[in-house]
Task: structure prediction
Amino acid sequence: MVKVIIFDLDGLLIDSQPLQYQAYHQVFSNHGFLLTLVDWQEWIHNSYSAKQWIQKHKLPLDVATLRSEKKTIYDQLIHDELKLKPGARKLINTLYGKFRLGIASASRLESIELIVDKFGLRSKFEQLVSDTEMANGKPHPDIFLETAQAMQVEPADCLVIEDSMAGLKAAKAANMTCIICPDTFSNLKPATFTGADKIVSQLDEITCAMIDSLDSARILSAMGYQGPYICQACGNTFQSRAGGGFLFIEYRCVNCDAIKTVKSNRRVPSSEYTPPTAAEVGVCEQCGGELKSDLQPMCPACKSRDVKESGGGSVIHYD
Result:
């Protein structure tokens, strides 16, 4: 069950890539090297570090000097020109209070703090995490795993929103659901992001219903159903993917329609999964009536149970 939403920062929430390029372009120009836009796109597509880029082009410049000079220029650009990406504030406000929010970024922690303070967003995020002091940056999963640990949740309970291929790879390596919103400045086409759970063109396309739908897909897969499932009421198609966690099942009383949630003591997905025993289920706490599970699949978009295939359903959920 998704409890935490982890956002990337640069190129996702803030329109920083043009400013990053402008800052690096000026530093390199001051040292006699022309950094073209094509060069910059190669840099970010391959997730090069500053050290790797200097070594690749045999530049007469040390990393400390590059970072110091770039920081001076970039910090001023942040102050003067930085803007939120379209839909960013709306999405944060939509998700805040329904999910716990965090930021996991390759930017320096002081830059992250400067940016969230600039836009009045500090109170929305429980954790601000930078990978600058970590042994491995994206596409390694370290930053997402550390963010999950800091927020005291399992990786499977996290959903990552990213704009880059390196971020997607890192999220999947961490066993997290991932929505991609490509940054147009990076010039990567949506088809590039193989393995993403969802791809959107604008942040305000992301909704709580979309997140619930992705959760339902994971649950269906854990129960062994592969889909796709097609809702006959609204036409929504939902597809399963791998997931993990403890299984909870809702049982409905045959007499008074009350619902009781029962936790399975088995881990899923597992080919050996069996439902809770009658003793584990017990009886209705309202009237003492018999409880029965309802595994009829339910469309995550409109909640209709009139779907094309049978088995598994969103009445089964993770926690």
